[in-house]
What we know:
Layout: E1 2-5, H1 6-19, E2 24-30, H2 36-46, E3 61-65, E4 70-75, H3 90-96, E5 99-103, E6 117-123, E7 129-134
Parallel strand pairs: 2-5, 2-6, 4-5
Antiparallel strand pairs: 1-7, 3-4, 6-7
Amino acid sequence: MRLLDEAGLVAEGEALGRALPPGAVVLLEGELGAGKTTFVRALARGLGVAEAATSPSYALVHHYRGRRGPVFHLDCYRLRTPDEAADLDWQGLVAEGDAVLVEWPERAGAWVPPATHRFRLVHVADPGLRGLEPL
């Protein structure tokens, strides 16, 4: 696990976004406030998204225009059961998207497509740092 301050987390996310292959599916696990949306915002910037990505907690899916094509950001936190994820067009998102970025993938269960990249973000004792762990 790497310990990063917010600037480091953003730099890591932007670098990963620039390096992601087309069709990437990035799954982000972690507690509330661990930095998942900050990391997604940086990933999106690295993918060429001009606007600031925001948490789609209520809409479930936000769609952004990236350098190579659509970037989809999903937040599954509000799903009460994995079956609620069946209504999301996962296959279409993966087929159309340059990248699919998913927060709280465990709440969508088996509906989540296979990950190309998977991370866990964690709180650490120092409030200025976050832990970033590739899974």
